[in-house]
Q: What sequence folds into this?
């Protein structure tokens, strides 16, 4: 039986734990195991597992791995509640919909009740969709002023080559939001589009926040984020800082290629 090689581990300060996996497949497998472990622990402790899914190319194979026979039975999907970190303002069957990607890769392939999946209504007017999704989150985590005491068991995030995460882009007002949990955000690249995104107010209240990053195209920006190089404070991915939860970066060797702290 093939035994995966243990990842290289780095720690940046007290807050950022980094796992470097030898290749993309090893990263995908480890990320799927990570989701399983947190899901089982949450269900054992509280009877429910809440997760905010990320969009993008990196998480998709993780979702596909979780839907494989060797994984699917290891999570009690009847106890899982699925949310989304962000969504493009498109209908749910649109090729650019994060919900559609997650549905095709995972949700249609596991025994999860439809009522347990809470998608963002990207087809609605952006402000209306954001406020409606915030009401959904507040119904789950408590209708409080400011951040909840605790939000998700796990938030999965990716990182763009510009340092954005979810739909929190450099210079966007959403990064400085102190009260709202969900906001609309208009972005310019790769083409003008409205998106709906969770804000750090609710992301940072999660019990665990895990970034998944792969590929050489992310290496330079990732080094800025993790090592605090000049300008890192302007990068949304660098500013995610769970208040009480665990922050983990799971990356492959190509994404780690410009990190100075490697052995």
A:
């Amino acid at each position: 039986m093939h035994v995966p090689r243990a990842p290289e581990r780095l720690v940046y300060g007290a807050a950022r734990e980094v796992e470097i996996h030898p290749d993309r497949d090893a990263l995908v497998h480890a990320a799927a195991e990570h989701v399983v472990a947190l899901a089982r622990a949450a269900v054992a402790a509280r009877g429910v597992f809440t997760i905010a899914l990320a969009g993008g190319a990196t998480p998709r194979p993780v979702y596909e791995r979780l839907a494989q026979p060797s994984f699917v039975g290891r999570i009690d999907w009847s106890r899982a509640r699925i949310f989304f970190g962000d969504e493009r303002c498109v209908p749910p069957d649109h090729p650019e919909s994060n919900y559609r990607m997650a549905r095709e890769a995972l949700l249609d392939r596991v025994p999860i009740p439809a009522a347990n999946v809470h998608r963002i209504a990207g087809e609605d007017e952006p402000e209306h969709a954001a406020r409606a999704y915030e009401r959904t989150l507040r119904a789950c985590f408590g209708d409080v002023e400011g951040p909840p005491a605790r939000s998700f068991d796990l938030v999965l995030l990716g990182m763009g080559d510009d340092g954005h995460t979810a739909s929190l882009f450099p210079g966007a007002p959403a990064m400085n939001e102190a009260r709202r949990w969900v906001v609309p955000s208009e972005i310019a690249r790769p083409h003008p589009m409205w998106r709906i995104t969770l804000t750090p107010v609710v992301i940072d209240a999660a019990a665990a926040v895990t970034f998944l990053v792969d590929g050489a195209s992310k290496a330079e920006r990732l080094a800025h984020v993790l090592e605090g190089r000049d300008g890192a404070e302007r990068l949304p991915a660098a500013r995610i800082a769970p208040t009480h939860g665990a922050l983990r970066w799971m990356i492959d060797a190509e994404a780690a290629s410009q990190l100075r702290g490697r052995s």
